């Protein structure tokens, strides 16, 4: 089955339904019948076949008239052909020579192909060697990358080692300060011991004198004086205790100050490094400024050194193909400045490139570049302007191509090939870029290969998910902008900003220096206070010793006590001397530790200097490796260009080979047309020699032809043409006659089938129409007039049928009561005749029906047509607008019953009326919401 969407009876739209319901004329109803059953289409097809048969028969008649004249021409040229049979023998010989000549051309072309194949093998051998060299360079790149990685790891280790060494050095310095403090303490103790020894010696001498003068001294009352002395002694001891505590606090504070000073020294060193970096950046920016100022006089300087000289040399050189075009960036301008840096980063090296269309010009341009010391790239391209619109993404995306103003269409195509600028989109906001790059089921949108933001980030991942990569933006050189003043102003602003940062860093350094100086002053102040405290302690001890002496002097003389004290003083002096010896030993050990500490400090400083030197060397080595990598990359590019050159040569030779092969194929076909079997060709036979022999023979034939009105070839050709024309015409005429007979028989057979099919459709529709009327209580029939193409539906409603039944009964009753008399019988017959005429008058056509009856009749007709069709979907729109409730209910039941009798058919009914049918499992009612009037 097929859904006959174009069949208006199958899918009755609102307009079609209205037209169908309004159709009341017999010719209109007949046309609906033909359309619904598709008999109209078959009728039109059969009519087309009949017209074709008429055209073919007309053509046959014309060809039969022309055939005798063609036959006469054929006989005439056959006679001429017989007259030059002898001349054809000479022509045959020349043809044999021409056949051999054709195959000689093939042999020469095959020899040329073999030579080109040998050249290709030689070039492929050279390419293998070049690829080996390029692979060797790529291996070097891998090794250099490993070395760079190793050196960077070593650099990180060295930086970590410096931090460790700086911490170790700080510890050693702290230890050294502690040892120095210890030595100072030991010196102070030594001084104190010397003072004590001197005091003990003085005391010893004094005691000896006192013992001698004891007897001469008088006893005095010294109690009050002794109390004062004791009070002064207690005050001095308390002051001594406070000074000792202050000294200990000062020593602890000095250690804290030394740690702070070490941290500040590290910060100062880092600040100095940052300042040096800022100075380096400022110097680079100033060099860029100088270069941009020079560019204002020569804009080509932006594309690298030597470009201006190269452009002038290009104009003076001779070129095989087109004059080299470049630099490419000269033809490009940026429309929106905010994308200038991103666009220049994406295109970068492509902006400096030159374009040629063949390898010879590339070699010439490469030599000129070497002469001009120019490092720009060379691109070999085909000068063709292809259509790139199919590769662009949705027009809502801003692509790199749209932001560029490219004045040369060839440059635009090459940038599309090199950088795919038509498929790189630009988005200002990074979050929006993330959404765009994941909009295609987590993948890139169609025809999008990359996405960049205005702040220099590449967004998106082909594997899906979020991915943001910071791009190393190039230094803006003004290659995409004619307004260098804005770039110079921008760089000046950057220099001012960096100078401000440098000034802030210098201020920070000075601030750190001030803090260090302040800590140094505070340290010195504490050290001075400590020294003053030590001197004060020495002074207090001396005063205490004097007080002890005064107290001793004021005590009652006691020779035995003085002698005992003398012995104690002597023992104390010996103890002090012993402690002094121990002190000297401790001082010696401390000095040795200090010496060792100094060596450790020197070693740590040496290691630190060595690590810093190592870092500088590693950075230098990394730079050297990077330069080597760049050189290797250039070498790889050089070998690649050589390989491309050889491959291009192979391509050219292959093109030559293909051209020769096509030539061989053409020559072979031509030779095969001339001579299917390849003749033997002598090794020394050339096409030139054979051609001269053919020319000589042709001259002889020409002399023979001069005696004839036509040439041998013309006679033979014309004779063959007329023979072929006659045979072809005769054959075609027979074929056309056979075709016409076959087509005519097929037309008659299909026409008879169509009539049979129409008859069967008519019977089926009639029966179905009568059945549907019967279900309503109506009676009627469809009257078809196929010759006049008319269809008249005759319908008797239930009221008509009741009237007819009553009339019939009355007529029958009158006939029974008058059987006895002949006159009464004649009257009955007359009345019966009148009843039959009334029955005929009761059968109505559509025009005499009411609106509901007419709609019901039309629905019955539609259902009858549907029963004769084989479409799985049937639709009906606003079919019940003119029906009353009774007809609508009966019509709905009829349609539902018809639908249930066709379970494989889908019925779609659309009505503005309330549905009176009850929902069921096989009936679905969809109610639309009333339209909003607000």
UniProtKB/TrEMBL annotation:
Composition-biased stretches (Basic and acidic residues): 831-847
Similarity remark: Belongs to the SMC family. SMC6 subfamily.
Keywords annotated in UniProt: ATP-binding, Chromosome, Coiled coil, DNA damage, DNA recombination, DNA repair, Nucleotide-binding, Nucleus
Protein name listed in UniProt: Structural maintenance of chromosomes protein 6
Region (Disordered): 812-851
Comp. bias intervals (Low complexity): 812-822
Cellular component aspect of the GO annotation: nucleus; site of double-strand break; Smc5-Smc6 complex
Keyword Ribonucleoprotein included in the entry's annotation: no
GO BP annotations listed: double-strand break repair via homologous recombination
GO molecular function per UniProt: ATP binding; damaged DNA binding; single-stranded DNA binding
Domain of life: Eukaryota
Residues in coiled coil: 106-295, 488-532, 559-707
Xref: InterPro entries: P-loop_NTPase
The UniProt record lists the keyword Transmembrane helix: no
Localization: Chromosome; Nucleus
């Amino acid at each position: 089955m097929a859904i006959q969407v174009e069949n208006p009876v199958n899918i009755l739209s609102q307009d079609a339904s209205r037209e169908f319901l309004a159709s009341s004329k017999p010719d209109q109803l007949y046309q609906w019948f033909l359309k619904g059953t598709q008999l109209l289409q078959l009728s039109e097809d059969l009519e087309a076949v009949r017209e074709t048969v008429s055209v073919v028969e007309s053509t046959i008649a014309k060809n039969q008239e022309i055939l005798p004249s063609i036959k006469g021409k054929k006989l005439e040229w056959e006679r001429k052909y017989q007259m030059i049979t002898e001349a054809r023998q000479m022509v045959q010989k020349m043809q044999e020579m021409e056949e051999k000549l054709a195959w000689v051309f093939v042999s020469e072309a095959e020899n040329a192909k073999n030579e080109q194949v040998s050249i290709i093998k030689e070039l492929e051998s050279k390419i293998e060697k070049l690829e080996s060299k390029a692979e060797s360079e790529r291996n070097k790149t891998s090794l250099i990358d490993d070395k760079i990685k190793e050196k960077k790891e070593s650099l990180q280790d060295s930086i970590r080692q410096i931090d460790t060494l700086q911490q170790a050095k700080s510890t050693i310095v702290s230890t050294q300060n502690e040892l120095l403090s210890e030595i100072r303490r030991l010196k102070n103790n030594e001084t104190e011991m010397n003072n004590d020894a001197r005091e003990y010696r003085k005391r010893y001498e004094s005691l000896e004198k006192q013992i001698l003068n004891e007897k001469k001294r008088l006893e005095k009352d010294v109690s009050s004086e002794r109390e004062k002395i004791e009070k002064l002694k207690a005050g001095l001891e308390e002051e001594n205790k406070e000074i000792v505590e202050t000294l200990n606090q000062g020593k602890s504070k000095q250690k804290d100050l030394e740690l702070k000073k070490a941290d500040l020294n590290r910060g100062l060193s880092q600040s100095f490094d940052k300042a040096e970096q800022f100075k380096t950046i400022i110097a680079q920016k100033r060099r860029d400024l100088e270069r941009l100022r020079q560019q204002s006089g020569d804009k080509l300087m932006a594309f690298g050194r030597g470009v201006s000289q190269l452009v002038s040399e290009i104009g003076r050189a001779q070129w095989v193909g087109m004059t080299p075009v470049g630099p490419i960036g000269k033809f490009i301008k940026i429309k929106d400045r905010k994308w200038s840096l991103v666009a220049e980063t994406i295109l970068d090296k492509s902006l400096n490139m030159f374009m040629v269309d063949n390898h010879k010009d590339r070699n010439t341009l490469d030599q000129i570049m070497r002469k001009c010391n120019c490092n720009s790239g060379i691109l070999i391209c085909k000068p063709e302007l292809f259509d790139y619109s199919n590769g662009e993404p949705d027009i809502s995306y801003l692509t790199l191509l749209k932001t560029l103003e490219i004045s040369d269409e060839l440059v635009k195509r090459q940038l599309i090939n090199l950088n795919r600028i038509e498929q790189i989109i630009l988005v200002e906001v990074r979050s929006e870029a993330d959404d765009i790059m994941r909009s295609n089921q987590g993948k890139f949108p169609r025809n999008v290969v990359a996405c960049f933001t205005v702040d220099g980030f590449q967004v998106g991942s082909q594997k899906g998910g979020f991915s943001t990569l910071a791009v190393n933006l190039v230094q803006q050189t003004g290659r995409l902008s004619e307004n260098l003043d804005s770039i110079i102003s921008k760089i000046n602003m950057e220099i001012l900003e960096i100078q401000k940062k440098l000034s802030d860093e210098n201020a920070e350094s000075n601030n750190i220096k001030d803090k260090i100086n302040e800590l140094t002053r505070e340290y010195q102040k504490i050290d001075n206070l400590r020294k003053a405290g030590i001197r004060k302690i020495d002074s207090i001890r001396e005063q205490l010793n004097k007080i002890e002496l005064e107290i001793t002097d004021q005590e009652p003389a006691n020779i035995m006590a003085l002698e005992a004290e003398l012995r104690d003083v002597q023992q104390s002096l010996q103890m002090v001397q012993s402690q002094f010896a121990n002190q000297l030993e401790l001082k010696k050990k401390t000095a040795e530790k200090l010496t060792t500490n100094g060596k450790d400090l020197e070693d740590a400083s040496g290691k630190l200097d060595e690590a810093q030197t190592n870092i500088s060397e590693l950075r230098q080595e990394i730079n050297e490796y990077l330069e080597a990598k760049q050189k290797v990359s250039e070498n790889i590019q050089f070998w690649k260009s050589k390989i491309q050159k050889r491959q291009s040569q192979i391509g050219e030779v292959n093109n030559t080979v293909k051209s020769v092969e096509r030539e061989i194929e053409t020559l072979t076909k031509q030779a095969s047309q001339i001579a299917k079997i390849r003749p033997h060709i002598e090794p020394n036979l050339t096409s030139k020699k054979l051609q001269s022999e053919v020319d000589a023979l042709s001259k002889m034939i020409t002399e023979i032809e001069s005696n004839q009105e036509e040439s041998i070839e013309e006679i033979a050709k014309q004779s063959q043409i007329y023979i072929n024309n006659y045979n072809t015409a005769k054959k075609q005429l027979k074929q056309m006659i056979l075709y016409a007979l076959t087509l005519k028989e097929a037309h008659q057979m299909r026409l008879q089938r169509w009539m049979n099919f129409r008859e069967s459709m008519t019977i089926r529709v009639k029966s179905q129409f009568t059945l549907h009327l019967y279900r309503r209580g109506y009676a009627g029939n469809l009257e078809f007039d196929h010759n006049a193409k008319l269809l008249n539906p005759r319908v008797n409603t239930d009221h008509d049928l009741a009237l007819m039944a009553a009339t019939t009964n009355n007529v029958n009753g009158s006939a029974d009561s008058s059987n006895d008399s002949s006159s009464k019988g004649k009257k009955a017959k007359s009345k019966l005749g009148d009843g039959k005429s009334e029955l005929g008058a009761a059968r109505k056509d559509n025009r005499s029906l009411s609106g509901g009856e007419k709609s019901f009749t039309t629905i019955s007709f539609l259902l009858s047509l549907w029963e004769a069709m084989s479409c799985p979907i049937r639709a009906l729109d606003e079919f019940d607008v003119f029906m009353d409730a009774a007809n609508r209910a009966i019509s709905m039941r009829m349609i539902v019953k018809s639908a249930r009798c066709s379970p494989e058919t889908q019925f779609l009914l659309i009505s503005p009326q309330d549905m009176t049918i009850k929902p069921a499992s096989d009936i679905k009612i969809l109610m639309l919401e009333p339209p909003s009037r607000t």
